[in-house]
Amino acid sequence: MTEVKASRIEFSDELISFIEKWKNKQGNLVMVLHKVQEEFGYIPRDAAKEVAHLLETPLAKIYGVMTFYNFFKLEKPGEHNIQVCTGTACYLKGGVDLIDELEILLGIGVNTVTDDGLFSIESVRCIGCCGLAPVILIDGEVFGKLEKDQLPEIIAKFRDK
Length: 161
Fold this sequence. Notes:
This protein is an alpha+beta fold. It has 2 domains: 13-68; 80-159, 3-Layer(aba) Sandwich (Glutaredoxin), CATH 3.40.30. The chain has helices at 13-22, 28-40, 45-55, 59-68, 88-92, 95-106, 151-159, and strands at 80-85, 119-124, 136-138, 141-143.
């Protein structure tokens, strides 16, 4: 008989302390989920289960909040998550065209990850760089006033990291 070991996720001491601090405060769930996503880059299922256990909250309620707010990621993003701004200024100046081109270049759609786990594409509402529209953000680096033909060079820069 083969023994199956349940996969458990480990929270940092800082995260556990944060959860304990917020455990009995109203509105705690969103704050805790933000902190969990900050630690892992997304919210793995085992992390959601652990949050449910630590907050003594049904897992269904945890998932209800995670799926209601589109900020929370349920799937692990690529090592380099490409956030394409589709706020008003970027939309009007070609943000959607950048998404279309990235999908072609990487062979994936929005909210999916390349087979090698290196890249993912995400559409975001506003990065706050409207004067640089259209804008993408990769690993905290802003690329503005973009044209589609600049994307292969930008992707190559991160592929080589």
